[in-house]
């Protein structure tokens, strides 16, 4: 250590100011705004991947409820028998609707009270059962002779019946039946449970759409898991980009997200194969996506299918017209009133109020369309949408020349070091062209969920999003959700992990929560000297609240000694939230969910020469009152 009187590199020693080689100087002038921060900067991106909805956010507990797993068709269903009861199931080529035109036929050869036979389903890696809880179920059945159905939730471990009821199944054609199951106060929360539906009389019964829901967020029928919704709400999102991602495109045109087949009664939704290799129930259909936005009080960023699918099929010429019409119809379904054709359909589906919409995205990652057809496709969609809906901003998924997009969607999946190296990318980007939506980004390190190294890469990247938020109007991490069970994840490094019973936030999740909760409305002037190459910062202010949000990121494992001048700050206490781990590999898991979480503390600020040591592997967000 040596004592000097230079501008940077100070440390206090016995009343004098001395430098160490490591001390850096950070100067923030909170009175000089350099650029606005977009109020919509942080949001969510979603798609059916990693069992995000089925087996995730969407509350349905029964797996393969419509018997359309690719192979075997009745996967996740087994027969159950008591005593000498006998039964089998096979395919019935009829069903309750045009969409669900096949079913499972159960033939009970022998059964009696106490010796029942039927079928069972173990859910998505179990069924979460909690005490004093009402589960609401339904099924369609066509029966001959079986009489009363006995529905129950049964513990896999003890065979104990945790809740049960009976349903009178009438002989004759297809009918919908509903039932509810209530657990007792003493039931222990567990996911090792299954559903059984059994009969005490021989006969045949065909089933379709066997469903069971726990209580949902805001008690919406066909709704979402409360724990996951609460985690999303804590991220303070401003928008939800839906419905994908690759999921929008499908592997083939046939397998795209065909929104018209995802609305209306569940029995009229045929379900479809997702490009992530499993069948989507489409229980999370277009209206449910929009209600999800409503529940989080965010706007949808509506991505419309634009005639390109992942395996390279692309549509052009006259054949593109119905797809353009589908997009116009979709916008009308979202925003139209009851006097419009598709607005009226939404009203009939149970949502009289139109939804707010500001952004429409045309396609997804169309840079992968090597035929170059996006130029034509974008221009034609843009023309049709702009002539009917000039008020909406259009997002292109890759730069185009044929028509000028309002916004371009850039995606980044990188390592921590790659993000550290990228933080200045937008500092010098053109401010006169389209705005930027970073519609998918993530530091990919850690599986199934990101570790602390990834959180550091993310935090560094978010400092650059904030600094450039005059240009970057929105940004959303992807993927958002993963079921952590073996086979649940198709894409590693996902923000939030869960099983049927519990959920947890990764270190990256907590970094997002901290950044979004302390966003500010303007970036202010700042400069740093002598910082290590893995040190990053963001300085924004909330003008009305008179608060400086100072975000500090130390991606190295060494302490970064800092001396700060905070022009305009009040001397005195400030609130600091910090996220720290011993190493980049440290993380949270389903069994150790709380290893890395923000810690809140008070720090004493001096606006001049504030000496602060930022530990290695640390993210800090400090709210400093302004004069
Ligand atoms: O987020 C996973 C996938 O990454 C998205 O579906 C796709 O848009 C991107 O390639």
Structure description:
The chain is α/β, with parallel strands linked by helices and 627 residues long. Helix 5 crosses helix 6 (341-348), helix 8 runs parallel beside helix 9 (452-467) and helix 9 packs parallel to helix 10. It is globular. The relative contact order is 0.14. Alpha-L-arabinofuranose binds at residues 47, 244-246, 364-365, 440, 478-479, 491.
Give the helix level as a range of percent: 10-25%
Over all CA atoms, what is the radius of gyration?
28 Å
Q: Taking strands numbered 1, 2, ... along the chain, how are they ordered across the largest sheet?
A: 32-31-34-29-28-27-3-30-33
- What structural category characterises the helix and strand content? alpha/beta
The biggest beta sheet reads: 9 strands, mixed
Bound molecules: alpha-L-arabinofuranose
Q: What is the overall pLDDT average?
A: 95
Task: For the structure shown, list the relevant keywords.
627 residues, alpha/beta, nine-stranded mixed β-sheet, eight-stranded parallel β-barrel, disordered N terminus, binds alpha-L-arabinofuranose
């Amino acid at each position: 250590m040596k004592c000097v009187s230079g501008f940077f590199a100070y440390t206090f020693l016995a009343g004098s100011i001395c430098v160490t080689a490591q001390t850096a100087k950070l100067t923030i002038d909170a009175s000089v705004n350099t650029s606005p921060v977009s109020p919509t900067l942080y949001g969510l991106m979603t798609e059916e991947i990693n069992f995000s909805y089925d087996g995730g956010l969407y509350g349905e507990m029964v797996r393969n409820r419509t018997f359309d797993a690719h192979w075997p068709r009745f996967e996740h269903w087994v027969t159950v028998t008591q005593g000498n009861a006998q039964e089998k199931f096979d395919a019935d080529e009829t069903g309750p609707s045009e969409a669900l035109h096949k079913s499972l036929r159960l033939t009970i050869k022998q059964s009696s009270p106490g010796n029942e036979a039927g079928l069972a389903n173990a859910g998505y890696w179990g069924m979460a059962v909690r005490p004093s809880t009402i589960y609401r179920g339904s099924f369609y059945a066509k029966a001959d002779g079986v009489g009363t159905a006995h529905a129950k939730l049964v513990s896999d471990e003890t065979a104990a019946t945790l809740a049960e009821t009976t349903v009178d199944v009438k002989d004759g054609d297809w009918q919908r039946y509903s039932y509810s199951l209530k657990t007792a106060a003493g039931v222990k929360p567990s996911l090792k449970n299954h559903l059984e539906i059994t009969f005490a009389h021989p006969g045949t019964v065909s089933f379709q759409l066997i469903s069971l829901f726990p209580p949902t967020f805001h008690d919406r029928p066909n709704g979402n898991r409360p724990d996951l919704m609460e985690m999303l709400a804590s991220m303070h999102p401003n928008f939800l980009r839906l419905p994908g991602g690759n999921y929008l495109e499908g592997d083939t045109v046939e397998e795209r997200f065909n929104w018209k087949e995802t609305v209306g009664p569940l029995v009229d939704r045929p379900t479809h194969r997702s490009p992530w290799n499993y069948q989507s129930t489409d229980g999370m259909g277009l209206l449910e996506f929009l209600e999800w936005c409503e529940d989080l009080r965010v706007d949808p960023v509506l991505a419309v299918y634009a005639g390109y699918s992942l395996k390279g099929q692309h549509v052009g010429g006259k054949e593109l017209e119905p797809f353009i019409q589908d997009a116009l119809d979709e916008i009308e379904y979202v925003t139209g009133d009851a006097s419009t054709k598709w607005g009226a359909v939404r009203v009939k589906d149970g949502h009289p109020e139109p939804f707010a919409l500001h952004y429409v995205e045309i396609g997804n990652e169309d840079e992968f369309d090597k035929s170059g057809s996006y130029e034509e496709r974008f221009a034609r969609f843009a023309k049709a949408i702009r002539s009917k809906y000039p008020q909406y901003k259009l997002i292109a998924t890759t730069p185009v020349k044929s028509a000028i997009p309002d916004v371009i969607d850039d995606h980044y999946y990188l390592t921590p070091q790659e993000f550290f190296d990228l933080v200045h990318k937008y500092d010098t980007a053109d401010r006169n062209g389209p705005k930027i939506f970073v519609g998918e980004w993530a530091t990919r390190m850690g599986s199934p969920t990101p570790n602390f190294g990834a959180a550091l890469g993310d935090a560094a990247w978010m400092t650059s999003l904030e600094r450039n938020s005059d240009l970057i109007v929105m940004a959303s991490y992807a993927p958002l959700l993963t079921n952590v069970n073996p086979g649940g994840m198709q894409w590693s490094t996902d923000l939030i992990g869960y099983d049927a019973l519990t959920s947890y936030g990764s270190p990256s999740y907590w970094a997002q929560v901290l950044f979004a909760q302390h966003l500010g409305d303007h970036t202010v002037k700042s400069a740093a000297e002598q910082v290590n190459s893995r040190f990053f910062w963001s300085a924004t202010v909330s003008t009305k609240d008179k608060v400086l949000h100072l975000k500090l990121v130390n991606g190295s494992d060494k302490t970064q000694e800092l001396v700060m001048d905070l022009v305009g700050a009040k001397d005195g206490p400030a609130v600091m939230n910090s996220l720290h781990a011993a190493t980049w590999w440290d993380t949270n898991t389903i069994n150790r969910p709380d290893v890395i979480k923000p810690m809140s503390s008070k720090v004493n600020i001096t606006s001049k020469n504030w000496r602060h040591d930022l530990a290695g592997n640390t993210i800090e967000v400090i709210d400093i009152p302004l004069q």
